[in-house]
């Protein structure tokens, strides 16, 4: 079989979401992202303005997280958090669904929660993307399919596997299932435990159009 030819760097959201991350760590992250020309850096909201100031004028964008990592914030809080991040320079927002509501079959609320963020973000600034983390580690395959359909119905731009802060991690089977469910209508982001080039390529082969990883440099330069 012919090996997959893909520019992995252009698909990577280079991620640093550790609570102990310092300004110096964010500066290092941004410099590495510029060197390797990653798609974005993904940082906690408190670091968005710093990352934006370092990356402005480059091809590397700023991604952040909302309702992270539990997804249990009130909807109004998620909306406020997303809008503040946009003011600080974020061009992409990764929000966590209300996992408990999803498990309880409260599908209309889950859709409302997502769509409230999506509508607020798209109204605030054209072109800003919303990715929705469904936390696949907590869901059955049937629930993953349902969650993907809700994300699509809520007009989000991407569906994403995991936060990386739960027991779940990105798997080829989950990415393939998500892509089969949404087709080419929205993006699929694989995130959680992707550490090597082989793992990254397997996610892309399964249908991922974006990769979230803290191991971006290792993936590009080799172990």
Can you walk through the features of this model?
With 223 residues, the protein is an alpha/beta fold. The protein has one domain: TIM Barrel. 44% of the residues lie in helices and 17% in strands. It has helices at 23-36, 48-55, 75-88, 99-103, 107-124, 141-153, 172-182, 197-206, 216-221, and strands at 12-16, 40-43, 61-66, 92-96, 129-133, 158-160, 187-191, 210-213. Strands 1-2-3-4-5-6-7-8 form an eight-stranded parallel β-barrel, surrounded by seven helices. α1 (23-36) packs parallel to α2, α3 runs parallel beside α5 and α5 (107-124) runs parallel beside α6. The radius of gyration is 16 Å and the shape is globular. The two termini are 23 Å apart.
Number of helices: 9
Whole-angstrom Rg: 16 Å
Please describe the biggest sheet, giving its number of strands, its sense, and whether it closes into a barrel.
Answer: 8 strands, parallel, barrel
- Can you identify the CATH superfamily? Aldolase class I
Distance between the termini: 23 Å
Q: What is the CATH class designation?
A: Alpha Beta
Q: Find the structural class using helix and strand composition.
A: alpha/beta
Which regions contain 5 or more consecutive residues with pLDDT less than 50?
A: none
How many domains make up the 3D coordinates?
Answer: 1
Question: Secondary-structure map with pairings?
Answer:
Blueprint (H helix, E strand, L loop, with lengths): L11 E5 L6 H14 L3 E4 L4 H8 L5 E6 L8 H14 L3 E5 L2 H5 L3 H18 L4 E5 L7 H13 L4 E3 L11 H11 L4 E5 L5 H10 L3 E4 L2 H6 L2
Parallel strand pairs: 1-2, 1-8, 2-3, 3-4, 4-5, 5-6, 6-7, 7-8
């Amino acid at each position: 079989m012919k090996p997959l030819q893909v520019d992995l760097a252009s698909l990577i959201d280079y991620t640093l979401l550790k609570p102990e991350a310092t300004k110096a760590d964010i500066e290092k992250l941004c410099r590495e992202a510029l060197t390797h020309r990653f798609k974005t850096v993904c940082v906690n909201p408190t670091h968005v303005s710093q990352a934006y100031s370092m990356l402005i004028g480059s091809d590397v964008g700023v991604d952040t997280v909302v309702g992270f990592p539990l997804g249990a914030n009130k909807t109004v809080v998620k909306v406020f958090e997303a809008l503040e991040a946009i003011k600080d320079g974020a061009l992409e927002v990764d929000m966590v669904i209300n996992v408990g509501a999803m498990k309880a079959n409260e599908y209309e609320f889950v859709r409302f929660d997502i769509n409230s963020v999506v509508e607020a973000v798209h109204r605030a600034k054209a072109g800003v993307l919303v990715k929705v983390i469904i936390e696949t580690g907590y869901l059955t395959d049937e629930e993953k399919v349902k969650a993907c359909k809700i994300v699509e119905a809520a007009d989000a731009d991407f569906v994403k596997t995991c936060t990386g802060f739960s027991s779940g991690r990105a798997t080829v089977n989950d990415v393939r299932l998500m892509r089969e469910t949404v087709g080419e209508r929205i993006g699929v982001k694989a995130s959680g435990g992707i550490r090597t080039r082989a793992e990254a390529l397997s996610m892309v082969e399964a249908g991922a159009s974006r990769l979230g990883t803290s191991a971006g440099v290792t993936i590009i330069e080799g172990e």
